[in-house]
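Handoff note, outgoing to incoming analyst
You'll be picking up this chain. Sequence as last confirmed:
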Amino acid sequence: MNSARPAWAIETEGLTKVYGSGNTEVVALRDVGMRVRPSELVALLGPSGSGKSTFLAAVGLINAPTSGRVRIGGRDVLDGPKALIDPRTFRRRHIGFVFQKSNLIPFLSAVENVRIALQINGESARAGRRRAMELLDYLDVADRADHDPTMLSGGQQQRVAVARALANRPSVILADEPTAALDSRRGRQVMDLFRKVAHEQGAAVIVVTHDHRSLDLFDTHYEMEDGRLREIAPSTEPA
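Most recent structure output, in case you need it:
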């Protein structure tokens, strides 16, 4: 049996997303193709409304495309609007999400917010707490494990959110404007965390961002405009 790691953690081919029809038709994605390797950190840039979040939602099996294909870890998961797997189960096991707001459960402590992701997948309470504490320690917030989200800074909340995204050892992490609510220093710290996660944990990480101050941390840079995607070199990135 060949258990070799697939060359590509994420592959999209011909992704197109159309909303409405006739005079109300809006094309959000236009024939988008991207390949991301394991351990690669990708920045996805572009103006608001250009299709970045729509692309992330397709790759994350949240909102299927009108046409095109998505492959995760060498496995076909979407063929146009048709899911080839159970999206909910696949997301829980293989994809981690981080959003602009940490979306932590306010009445749970930091460690409980991470542990709940493991419990949903059937992990025991003891094993879940051990894994959650390992991740909080890895992300330098173990000393805040028993604090509620309201007692954490914005940067600490995002660290807990990253820990939660990592809980089930996903091969893919998708982050949508994760530093938008943070100042430049804390924003760079969070971007540095994503680099650490990609390079040390082996996950493929795509970060949608408007923040150009931390682009030196990324391995690959793409820009989306009017639903079309192109790879850009660091020297061509807008200031």
